[in-house]
Specification:
The chain contains eight helices and 24 strands. By secondary structure, it is α+β, with helices and mostly antiparallel strands. It has two domains: about 280 residues, no CATH class; about 140 residues. Strands 1, 6, 7, 8, 9, 10, 11, 12 and 14 form a nine-stranded mixed beta sheet that branches. Strands 17-18-19-20-24-23-22-21 form an eight-stranded antiparallel beta sheet, with no helix packed on it. The protein has a five-stranded antiparallel beta sheet with strand order 5-4-3-2-13. Strand 22 and strand 23 form a beta hairpin. The longest helix is centred in the first third of the chain and has 17 residues.
Length: about 425
């Protein structure tokens, strides 16, 4: 029996990240001598239940990388100097040999706040509960040393797991803040698992970690009964579906992107390790792997194709107008054509814009599966028999969405039984 119950006022929210969660549960399962047979059975039940939590949209992220290259880290003449400074101060940040007993420890070079001064982040997990311990250091303004950054956390507070290769980022254009979203999982005893989503911000030399939402899973009676408590940071009850998408709800007015972070696991702090991590830190629009490019594209009657993550220069249609939307963060330009509307993201290192959203209300353009504006809902369902999902709306308009992952989708707006608009974008359904 599974039941959803209201969160107790004083319930503890512990806290994982889609791909990392699997690895961390694996670590939990690998513990020797601490868990009996009955716990193994309980954990087997957990795997089955967890599978129901993950929707079709939550596919592995390892093949999704940002369009904007590592040049977006603001590589300049000081980068080599900064890496040298970090290396010279290895005694301050290096993970000691005693940490080698843990399965997961590592470090990464980042520029989370994009101020041009690099950070080095260290992290490791400890104990049966898989608790994370993170430290953040930043090159100082004179570029001759590093400072350990303060945080808003107390010693007893949970630190989120951060060693993810791909991280969702939401940019506040007004406050110039980058919110990195991590999912953390901890175990509280043999039959209680606690998951939570956190936003992490670096601003003015301080790291702020903020709880967004949490999910507690409690097994009772040998795993026959399961209590699931889902709530946001304000204690408001959430459905499982709204929890899975809560970051998009919470940051709905922010610019959305992805960050790639190169974690050096069990490393020695060498120059080559630092350079590799630095070179692979990227921030930009999500990218579809090559074999899926055609799926997330529109083609006109003359065979001209427009697809996500291509240069705006590939669009053959005559431009009517464009509007530039700039801030200290992402730089976006909106393009209006006779039959298209396109939003594109600036890749500053090549001075070009790359397509992140394609929208049409014209029958001139078709998807890879031959669907265009004016086609019926029945034809749409025949062309996309798998994973086509109806999106709830507050209007009379009917919207169906075909997802690839948390980052890419095709949306079909239905009016009077026929398709009135097609949108392909780097956003979830």
């Amino acid at each position: 029996m599974k039941k959803y119950i209201k969160a107790p006022i004083f319930s503890t929210a512990f806290s994982e990240s889609e791909k990392s969660a699997k690895n961390r549960f694996k670590n939990i399962l690998s513990e020797k001598g601490k868990i009996g047979v009955i716990v193994v059975v309980i954990l087997a039940i957990l795997v089955v239940v967890a599978a129901t939590f993950v929707s079709i949209k939550n596919k592995p992220q390892e093949n999704i990388t940002p369009t904007v290259s590592s040049g977006d880290i603001r590589k300049d003449d000081t980068s080599e100097k900064q890496l040298a400074v970090i290396l010279d101060n290895i005694s301050k940040w290096s993970l000691t040999k005693e940490l080698e007993q843990y399965d997961a420890y590592g470090y990464a070079i980042t520029d989370l706040d994009r101020n041009g001064r690099l950070e080095i982040i260290t992290s490791h997990c400890d104990g049966a509960g898989m608790y994370s311990y993170n430290k953040y250091y930043e090159v100082n303004e004179s570029l001759d040393g590093i400072n350990e950054l303060t945080t808003n956390l107390k010693d007893e507070d949970i630190q989120t797991y951060i060693m993810d290769a791909t991280v969702k980022v939401f940019y506040d254009t007004i406050k110039n803040e980058y919110h990195y979203v991590f999912t953390n999982v901890n175990r509280n005893g043999a039959a209680e698992y606690n998951e939570a989503k956190y936003g992490v911000v670096l601003k003015d030399g301080k790291i702020t970690q903020k709880l967004l939402a949490s999910k507690d899973i409690i097994y009772k009676n040998g795993g026959e009964d399961i209590d699931i408590i889902i709530k946001n940071a304000d204690g408001e009850e959430l459905t499982d579906e709204s929890y899975e998408r809560y970051e998009y709800i919470h940051f709905k007015d922010y610019e959305y992107s992805l960050a790639s972070i190169e974690w050096v696991m069990n490393g020695d702090g060498t120059k080559s390790e630092l350079e590799k991590s630095y070179n692979n830190f990227k921030l930009g629009a999500p990218k579809v792997e090559n074999d899926l490019n055609d799926e997330f594209a529109l083609t006109d009657n003359d065979g001209n194709k427009i697809q996500l993550n291509d240069s705006i220069k590939t669009v053959k249609e005559g431009l009517i107008s464009s509007k530039y939307n700039s801030s200290d963060g992402f730089h976006v330009r909106e393009y209006s054509y006779a039959n298209l509307y396109i939003r594109a993201l600036l890749a500053s290192y090549v001075d070009d814009y790359y397509i992140m959203q394609i929208e049409t209300t014209s029958p001139k353009y078709k998807t890879k599966r031959g669907i265009s504006v004016g086609d019926t809902l029945e034809k749409l369902k025949e062309a996309y028999p798998e994973n086509l999902t109806r999106v709830p709306t507050d209007t009379k308009e009917i919207i169906w969405c075909y997802p690839y992952s948390d980052f890419i989708s095709i949306t079909f707006n239905i009016t009077d039984g026929v398709i009135s608009k097609i949108i392909i974008e780097n956003k979830p359904c």
